[in-house]
Amino acid sequence: MPWRSPGRSEVQTSSTPVPDGESLRQSALAASWRRDRRVARRRLLWRWTLWVLARYGWLLLVLAALILAAIRYSQAQKATESARTVSLSSPPRATGPAWPSTMHTPRHRHPVAQQGALNHEPEPCLHPPRTG
Fold it and tell me: Is 115 or 16 the better-scoring residue by pLDDT?
């Protein structure tokens, strides 16, 4: 019966030869040296970067602040210049007098007196009686 027959174990043969121990060791050593050189370059770059920042970092901050201030100043100048051109190009609007007339402004009263005015109670007399 086929399920009882001993299974055939097929050994896969490779067309490439199996590397010997010395070549495997040499390739692992070369990969390790490449990684070591990459790590050394990265560490050296970080050391130089930190040294430059420690020595000239304050100067970089000052330059960045000056550049930002110059940009903001130029934007403010453009905004005021555009506001001037708009105000010069548009005709003046018809408005009332520069100061309000005293006939139409309500007198400043005490808050209690203002509440009485809202309740339609008679306003208290603020002027002394006339004699004469």
Answer: 16
**SS3 per-residue string spanning the chain:** CCCCCCCCCCCCCCCCCCCCHHHHHHHHHHHHHHHHHHHHHHHHHHHHHHHHHHHHHHHHHHHHHHHHHHHHHHHHHHHHHHHHHHHHHCCCCCCCCCCCCCCCCCCCCCHHHHHHHHCCCCCCCCCCCCCC
What span, in angstroms and rounded, lies between the C-alpha atoms of 86 and 88?
5
**CB 118 within 8 Å of CB 109:** no
With 0-12 / 13-18 / 19 or more C-beta atoms within 10 angstroms meaning exposed / middle / buried, residue 4 is: exposed
Model confidence pLDDT, tens digit, residues 92-103? 565 665 555 555
